[in-house]
TrEMBL record:
Family, similarity comment: Belongs to the universal ribosomal protein uS14 family. Zinc-binding uS14 subfamily.
Cofactor binding note: Binds 1 zinc ion per subunit.
Protein name in UniProt: Small ribosomal subunit protein uS14
Functional summary from the UniProt entry: Binds 16S rRNA, required for the assembly of 30S particles.
InterPro entries registered for this protein in UniProt: Ribosomal_uS14, Ribosomal_uS14_arc, Ribosomal_uS14_CS, RIbosomal_uS14_euk_arc, Ribosomal_uS14_sf
Subunit record text: Part of the 30S ribosomal subunit.
Recorded superkingdom: Archaea
Basic and acidic residues biased stretches: 1-16
Segments for region (Disordered): 1-27
Sequence positions that bind Zn(2+): 28, 31, 46, 49
Amino acid sequence: MSELDGEHTGNEETGEHATQGSTQERECRRCERTEGLVSKYGVFVCRQCFREIARSMGFRKYR
């Protein structure tokens, strides 16, 4: 199969790749912010909300 047979993705003139959009917009579960998202362990809360609820979730501060 040659490159001409498939769909055209990206811009060949500038060498850019087509952007891959996510299937779902990621946002904070509490306040719906999209910036500063803590997604590790499937938490999906922003860093501000994480600081408020981290202890009740079982996280400990060591310093």
